[in-house]
Amino acid sequence: MGNVALVIETFLRSLIWLVIPGKRGREILMLRKELQVLKRQVKKPRFTAGDRLLFVALLKLSRPVIHRLITIKPATVLKWHRQLVARKWNFSTRRVGRPPVDGKICLLVIEMKRNNRRWGARRIKGELRKIGITLSKSSIRNILNDAGYPPSARNFEETWIPFLKSHAKRVFACDFVTVETAFLKRIYIFAIIEVNTREIVTAAVTKNPTAIWLEQVFRSCFMCREILPDFIVSDRDGVFGDWLGTFLQDCYGIRLFRTPARCPNCNAFIERWNRTIREELLDHRIFFGRRDLQRVLNEYVAYYNERRPHQSLDLNAPNRKFDTNISFDKKRIRRTRIVDGLVVDYQLAS
Prior knowledge:
Blueprint: H1 2-19, H2 23-41, H3 49-58, H4 63-67, H5 74-88, H6 103-115, H7 121-130, H8 137-146, H9 162-166, E1 171-180, E2 186-194, E3 200-206, H10 211-223, E4 231-234, H11 242-252, E5 255-258, H12 268-280, H13 290-306, E6 333-338, E7 343-348
């Protein structure tokens, strides 16, 4: 087999020597053969900008020269020329749109969402404002969406009745929330909210909500307040019997306003508190008794009144207006875990 290959190689070498006696011609034949082999391996060659410019310049040569271009077609060269012309008349010299958000701020937004999964864009905006960062809700949504936190579909509808709107400055609202302990015992949380400021005036826990216990809660609540409300809104729970209206009117001159049956929107402010405490606390922890629940509840109420941004208060807390004229400094950020780590609060150290 080796002898046959050697004979064929000697024959081809003699034939090339006779047909192309010059050294220059043999080199050209070798280059053409190499090009033919390369074309078998590369299906679609890639050209740089310099290659395209050279081929466009060769377009000005005579037609026979163009037909000798074996790597591209004349139509391709014409397309490249049109692209060069289009690039010549492109006058966009600067990037249009908003400047990109600082990477450190993006990481902080993602950290807030990761530590507090129930927070939305508006809530994170309020937390950022507390530490001197101004960022729009759309930018926060885009950052979270890129990080794998798509926005949740929620519809917020304002259904406050005109009575509560016109008398909000002198109205309190109250309601009960039930909690099942680890031993399947039911515990009741009774809360009173001031409609105007959204402050939780009191939050008490009991195993048996009787009229005597409820009367004592109201007395403790109004004992330390200089200005008392004109109205208290409640639902038609059985514990709110006829005695409550008489007690409030005779002792404090407060009128009890009962909502219609099966109309929670008429007591929307305290119902919103019930939803908040369930989403941020009650649904994410198991309680072992009344004292355990009261301890965690007191800690959360203090956070709710002093440090939690509220949507209806322009992202301020009920008892505190956050300073927005401060500069952001990552080194000054202080993270505080409250209610056994369920919520991470962000503040700037003084």
